[in-house]
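Predict structure. Chain length: 356.
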Amino acid sequence: MYTAFSQLFQNDLTYDPQTMTWLVTGGAGYIGSHIVESFMHAGTPVAVFDDLSTGYRSFVPDDVPLVKGSITDPEAVGRALDEHAITGIVHLAGWKYAGVSVQRPLHFYGENVTGMQVLLAQASERGVNRFVLSSSASWYGTPDAEIVTEDAPPRPESPYGETKVISEWLLRDLARINPDLRQTSLRYFNVVGSGPPELADHSPHNLFPKVFRAVTAGEQPVVFGDGYPTPDGSCVRDYVHVVDLADAHVTAARLLDEGGNCAPAYNVGRGEGSSVFEVLDAIRSVTGIDFENDVQPRRPGDPARIVGSAELIARDMDWRAEFGLDAMASSAWAAWQRQLELYGGPPPDGGFGLIA
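Prediction complete.
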């Protein structure tokens, strides 16, 4: 299975990087490390910037430079850009999770908005004019449409979502006064699965690792709410495999490197939704474990349904998600089992919060 996923990193992304080096902020985390892998397989020099608060040093390949520092520290950010002659940035570093942001709004604004401002300021001073922002479908809140498109107005329902909206605005405002800045924002949905089994999702807040922790311990996984206005009462999301997502980031970077024009934002997903209960059924099938659900009250800040159209990114970048729900569940479960082998038990949480 992992041979197939690893091969996807190499599908048709190879291009001449010339002297272009991309910096992945948050590149020592779950999503960021997959993007680093995708850059490497595309033959593009890459470096990582991460404070390792929730990222893992082991997630960064030995031959990829790692600069440790906070995204809110101008000196550390500037050092990363200077030491590795960075020409493009994929920005993931920041804090996520809608529910947590409701409890810690000041912290989220400080890390996500101030961090974005610091990064853009340091990049602008050095003439770094290619920028891919790892944004979020939280831009949309709870959309009115069954399938939401990129021109839908921002209606975030949590401080986390608000910080993503502001980050996109900052990037666009800078592009208005800097015609050399080529940029885009990728609004993605729920990210699951694994490519290399060592790059597993450890987050204590994400659905798959939470379910795996529970069923491995013989407990019932918690479902937050079954009274949403959806067919089975649970939240509906557009789940995307992390390898597909990494592929989308590198595809966008390639287009910017080649001088192509990008839209301000793209949805990255499958264009179809799966409910939490449908995901749990897929996990039951993959693991062979028959478990019951522990339904708890819904969390503040969680919209009922978010499914995005993927037509624009298919048109502009010829990008389409390759993997469905079964592949997401099976690859995630295999990676989880690999973590059990490595740690002799459930893997560490790695703290909480960083999108990386």
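Summary: The longest strand covers residues 130-136.
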